[in-house]
Write a structure and sequence with these properties.
The protein is an all-beta fold and 627 residues long. Helix content is 2%, strand content 40%. Strand 26 (282-288) and strand 27 (296-302) form a beta hairpin.
């Protein structure tokens, strides 16, 4: 049964207390699930001690930012069409779940998929990357719609190098629906569709970077240098002019012309890139608005005269975001956000007008090239189209419930593992979650989060989870849980659970945890706990914890013992390696300890037999007495 749940009346109950543990630099949390009446080695004491030491089933997790339901609007000139990105899929389709795709809405056909790419996820756990930039995250188009450029980004979880040194951004450029031209970097298309400005392929480049401006009419390229990237919208004028930050000519910001000439601009630095109109005459930018910490002045610079003037005051919906603004192609009209609503004003500061006044705030806006229409995305994941001539607003995508604000999904998971996803926002009811078309067991769900168990027969590989919400909108998109990145399913990705800085383990009689104040002793049988130690047999029945009779034992034998400060391994007796009876996905190793190595506390070390003695191992400190 898809997404079958463990009901509240089941003998398995979720413990109230969660214990936070850590493994290296990865955040881990624990979920407790206790089975009434199950005895291990003849005592209920074992079960209670495991609850006390672990708080329950532990799992590896990382904190993730979230995708939005819809983002990166790109309308054409007359407002009859708009492109946008979304990780959602349309109802009744086999579109890829969870990964970003490009869609188009037009006034005649409604919403349709414009482009998706198959995932190409590769890597060896715990490192994840993709062979292509298949995540389609942002469109940029010429006003006539003849030139369409898509930004793709590849997967990468190697830590900070993914943002500061790995080339992940790629442009796919099409003219009149022809074959795509693929180039490095994130594209911005000029209003006339002739020029494409390409930012660095590195997400957050460090230092002066060589960028690209491409003339599609001739195929020629120029390569200005800049510390900053181009904005996705209005990043290049119709003659190929762009704004660069390079500290040349005594000015921070320059106007770079196709000829290579640089014109110093009297602009202050702001993290939000300035936008340039189609003719290269006017540049729009944000600057501080003292004493307000959140409001900013929306300014326009006349390139010919060098004079700057304030157009309006802009303000984001919250203090963590920059205000949104966008311009018409000719720069005569500016739209912006102020306190969660959309406004417009002429570039000379006249005719200030509030456009929206709805209960949900505006999180993104984009003007059509002619300035006739405004497109907006709201906080309830609606997409609005406002005719600025009549001020009539049309909902082209209705409110689309999503589960956002999630955290807790690890990059690498193993069959049988327990996952706990928590949320900073209330989560709607989720009837099913699957990966590789395999349903995950829903152990618990409430507005604060959801607890899942991966099936033991889950195939290895990499892919995007798919979690559909019970509450669905009346629109074309399937409401779902938002994930930031795919996951890798590995058959073997072991780690000990930790309490403080040592392995989570119990004494031989299950009387309590092994700690520096209550250490293990030579010859004692310790019970150590972890996750990801590979296949077991027999498999637990679906939706049931591991059995005490028969025991679920790892199909690969292990050799365990102690490693001292001199890196020498001394084998102990591995009496049991398998799933802890009465628990979901919790591995237990029962090891009779050898004599304590000299020096500091030793490491409890385990190898798969085939990996011994020099292959991969899993080890953590074990507090141990000399006798």
């Amino acid at each position: 049964m898809p997404g079958r749940k463990i009901h509240e009346k089941s003998t398995c109950q979720i413990a109230d207390k969660l214990l936070r543990v850590t493994r290296q630099n990865v955040v881990a949390q624990a979920l407790a699930c206790e089975l009434d009446g199950v005895k291990h080695f003849g005592t209920r004491r074992a079960k209670k001690s495991i609850v006390r030491i672990l708080g329950g089933l532990c799992f590896t997790t990382v904190l993730l930012a979230q995708q939005q339901a819809f983002q990166n609007l790109a309308p054409n000139s007359d407002g009859s069409a708009v492109y946008f990105s979304s990780p959602l899929r349309m109802k009744g389709t086999d579109q890829y779940p969870s990964q970003p795709k490009i869609f188009i809405w037009d006034s005649l056909k409604g919403v349709a998929l414009f482009e998706q790419q198959p995932p190409t996820i590769i890597g060896t756990p715990p490192f994840l990357r993709s062979a292509t930039a298949y995540n389609r995250i942002a469109p940029s188009i010429g006003s006539a719609g003849h030139t369409v450029a898509i930004t793709g980004i590849s997967d990468c979880n190697f830590s900070s190098v993914c943002g500061f040194s790995v080339e992940r951004l790629e442009a796919e450029i099409r003219v009149d629906g022809g074959d795509p031209l693929v180039m490095k970097g994130a594209p911005s298309v000029s209003a006339n569709g002739r020029f494409v400005a390409l930012s660095s392929p590195v997400v957050h480049p460090f230092g002066l970077t060589t960028l690209t401006v491409l003339d599609l009419a001739t195929g020629q390229q120029q390569h200005p240098a800049s510390f900053n990237s181009f904005p996705r919208r209005h990043g290049v004028a119709n003659d190929g002019s762009v704004i660069v930050l390079n500290l040349i000519n005594g000015a921070h910001i320059q106007l770079w012309r196709w000829s290579g000439a640089l014109e110093p601009l009297n602009l202050p630095f702001n993290p939000t890139p300035p936008e340039i109109d189609a003719f290269g005459d006017k540049i729009f930018y944000l600057t501080g608005h003292p004493p307000s910490p959140v409001q900013q002045d929306l300014m326009v610079l006349n390139v010919t005269t060098g004079q700057a003037s304030k157009v309006a005051i802009a303000q984001p919906d919250n203090s963590f975001d920059a205000p949104q603004f966008d311009i018409s192609d000719d720069g005569s009209l500016v739209a912006f956000t102020l306190a969660g609503q959309a406004w417009m004003v002429h570039s000379d500061g006249t005719a200030l007008t509030q456009i929206t006044n709805g209960p949900d705030s505006i999180v993104e806006i984009a003007l059509s090239g002619s300035g006739s229409h405004l497109f907006a995305i709201t906080s309830t994941s609606r997409i609005l189209r406002v005719d600025l001539r009549t001020m009539v607003s049309t909902e082209i995508v209705p409110a689309t419930p999503i589960a956002a604000g999630l955290r807790g999904l690890p990059f690498v998971v193993t069959p049988g593992e327990i996952l706990q996803l928590t949320s900073t926002q209330p989560i709607p009811e989720i009837p099913s979650v699957n990966l590789f078309n395999k349903d995950l067991m829903i152990l618990r769900e409430d507005p604060s989060g959801i607890d899942l168990q991966l099936p033991f027969d889950l195939p290895t590989g990499a892919g995007w989870p798919d979690a559909v919400l019970r509450q669905q909108s009346s629109g074309p998109f399937e409401s779902a849980m938002m994930f930031l990145a795919p996951v890798v399913v590995a058959s073997y990705a072991p780690h000990w659970f930790l309490t403080a800085n040592h392995v989570a383990a119990l004494h031989q009689d299950f009387s309590g945890p092994i700690t520096p104040d209550n250490p293990a002793h030579p010859g004692e049988i310790v019970h150590a706990y972890g996750s990801g130690f590979g296949p077991v047999a027999p498999l637990p029945a679906p939706g049931q914890p591991a059995s005490a009779n028969p025991l679920s034992i790892t199909t690969t034998p292990f050799i365990c013992g102690l490693t001292g400060n001199d890196s020498k391994f001394v084998a102990g007796d591995t009496l049991f390696a398998g799933l802890a009876p009465g628990w979901f996905g919790l591995y237990q190793f029962d090891v009779r300890l050898p004599a304590r190595p000299a020096g500091p506390d030793p490491y409890l070390t385990c190898f798969r037999m085939d990996d011994f003695p020099s292959g991969p191992r899993v080890e953590s400190l074990l507090p141990m007495a000399a006798q």
